[in-house]
């Protein structure tokens, strides 16, 4: 794959570049969001297979990386983006997933140390899947305005949290140690309770995750 990385930490940028190059990928790195937008901001730009970007980048180290990602997704709908963050930036996660969650991911930087999980998340995003860090999922669920407790059962909340991580029904079944039929039943119930219109299964799953994120308040996020 052709991968673009926007990361101001020299050590992390170098480490990711070495890791991904060793996996056979072609990597281009940028140290600022402005550099990233200058290269990919042209509607006719030669796009990478996936963009990996930090949230906080120069000059203010607030949300430049995220705003660049949102801007580029607006110019190039469907551009796969995997966001890296030092913390669970809840409001940033919500903004990133505000429209279409397909081909989007949000992973904590600490998770990069687990190479297999990081590579799996990257591959999932590059192929149009959704990847949310388990810690992001846990904190978003904990802070949810209603925690969906008025709508979903405890088991259904477990299932939708795993759906948000991008897991398939089979993977959810393995994680919860239940049968595939039971997971399918829970997923169907979730989609029905959230009043999602008939569509392809993958699209409805994405809509379910978006609905779940939309139920989360913006307050309480780390500044």
TrEMBL record:
Annotated positions of the 4-aspartylphosphate modification: 54
SMART domains from the UniProt entry: HTH_LUXR (SM00421), REC (SM00448)
Ranges of residues in domain Response regulatory: 2-124
Record-linked InterPro entries: CheY-like_superfamily, Sig_transdc_resp-reg_C-effctor, Sig_transdc_resp-reg_receiver, Tscrpt_reg_LuxR_C, WalR-like, WH-like_DNA-bd_sf
Keyword line: DNA-binding, Phosphoprotein, Transcription, Transcription regulation
One GO molecular-function entry: DNA binding
Keyword Lyase among record annotations: no
Domain of life: Bacteria
Domain (HTH luxR-type) ranges: 145-210
Keyword Transmembrane: no
Protein name stated in the entry: DNA-binding response regulator
Natural source organism: Cellulomonas phragmiteti
């Amino acid at each position: 794959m052709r991968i673009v990385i926007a990361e101001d930490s020299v050590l992390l940028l170098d480490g990711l570049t070495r890791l991904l190059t060793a996996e056979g990928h072609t990597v281009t790195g940028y140290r600022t969001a402005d550099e990233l937008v200058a290269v990919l901001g042209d509607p006719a730009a030669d796009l990478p297979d996936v963009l990996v970007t930090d949230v906080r980048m120069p000059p203010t180290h607030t949300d430049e990386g995220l705003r660049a990602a949102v801007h580029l997704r607006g110019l190039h709908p469907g551009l796969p983006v995997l966001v890296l963050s030092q913390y669970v930036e809840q409001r940033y996660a919500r903004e990133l997933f505000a429209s279409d969650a397909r081909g989007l991911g949000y992973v904590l930087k600490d998770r990069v140390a687990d190479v297999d999980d990081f590579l799996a998340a990257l591959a999932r995003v590059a192929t149009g899947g959704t990847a949310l860090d388990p810690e992001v999922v846990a904190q978003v669920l904990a802070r949810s305005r209603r925690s969906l407790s008025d709508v979903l059962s405890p088991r259904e909340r477990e299932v939708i949290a795993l759906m948000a991580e991008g897991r398939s029904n089979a993977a959810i079944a393995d994680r919860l140690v239940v049968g595939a039929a039971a997971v399918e039943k829970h997923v169907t119930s979730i989609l029905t309770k959230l009043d999602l219109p008939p569509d392809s299964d993958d699209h409805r799953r994405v809509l379910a995750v978006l609905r779940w994120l939309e139920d989360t308040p913006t307050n309480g996020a780390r500044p």
